[in-house]
Design a protein that fits this description.
With 248 residues, the protein is α/β, with parallel strands linked by helices. Helices cover 34% and strands 25% of the residues. A seven-stranded mixed beta sheet has the order 2-1-3-4-9-8-7, covered by helices on one side. Strands 5-6 form a two-stranded antiparallel sheet.
Length: 248
């Protein structure tokens, strides 16, 4: 199983998801878009994982690679290939498939419990899923073909699906124990944190992550494992990804 990974900044990486890939024998190719690494051809990959980042989906003039990424995602999902988008990755999925994304009145940041609707992606996960939020934009209007899977008072669209294989999760699961500190060094994230919680809030956020890391990790590895089950189901229905074997 080969997974193509789009990263928008080096410090926002697959994190704990790599443990699941390793255990399941999956390999990945990471593309660091803000370092101008080119998007490869889709052939040869079984799934697309798109992670978060400090960019916003409407900033295509400032970050031209976002427009290329949106086109790639649109074609990928239209081909009914498995997709998992996290935070910005969920917003890009919504944008690529006819939804609308915009800024929030107040960023949502911190450890949360988000109620989820039963779905394959959430099998064996608590009804109130442990997760981590750090976003100042949200899906304002779902794509016409989407079904809502989670929401809360701060953000009405926390998770959604399109068809049987494409998922967007506004919240983060993939954290390592140092991710919050790494992200807090990014200027856009630092500004959002200060707006939401005031100056000097990062140690408190890191303490939240430390205290809640084990339930978060359990949810992360279960949900990503469920996604890999969905990828395997797709391979069973449609066959393995076409194309030459590529380096990891």
């Amino acid at each position: 199983m080969r997974i193509l990974v789009f990263q928008h900044v080096r410090t926002e990486h697959p994190g704990s998801f790599t443990d699941v890939m390793r255990a399941r024998g999956a390999t990945m190719r990471q593309v660091i878009l803000d370092e101008f690494e080119p998007i490869p051809a889709a052939a040869g990959y079984d799934a697309l994982l798109v992670l978060g980042g400090p960019q916003d989906v409407w900033e295509t003039d400032r970050f031209p690679y976002l427009a290329d990424e949106i086109r790639f995602i649109k074609d990928w999902v239209a081909a009914q290939k498995p997709y998992l988008g996290i935070c910005l990755g969920a917003q890009l999925l919504a944008t690529a498939t006819g939804g609308a994304v915009g800024p929030m009145a107040m960023p949502e940041i911190g450890m949360k419990l988000v109620p989820v609707i039963p779905d394959k992606i959430f099998e064996d996960v608590p009804a109130s899923c442990p997760c981590f939020e750090w976003h100042g934009a949200e899906v304002k209007t779902l794509p016409p073909a989407a079904r809502l899977l989670a929401g809360n008072e701060a953000c009405a669209v926390q998770a959604f699906a399109i068809g049987a294989y494409a998922y967007g999760l506004q919240f983060h699961l993939e954290l390592t124990e140092t991710s919050a500190v790494d992200w807090g060094r990014l200027p856009a994230y630092e500004a959002a944190l200060e707006k939401a919680l005031g100056p000097g809030a990062l140690p408190g956020i890191q303490a939240q992550v430390h205290a809640g890391f084990q339930p978060l990790y359990a949810a992360a590895t279960t949900i990503f494992g469920n996604f890999l089950d969905i990828v395997a189901l797709h391979r069973g229905h449609f066959g393995a990804a076409a194309g030459a074997i590529l380096p990891a």
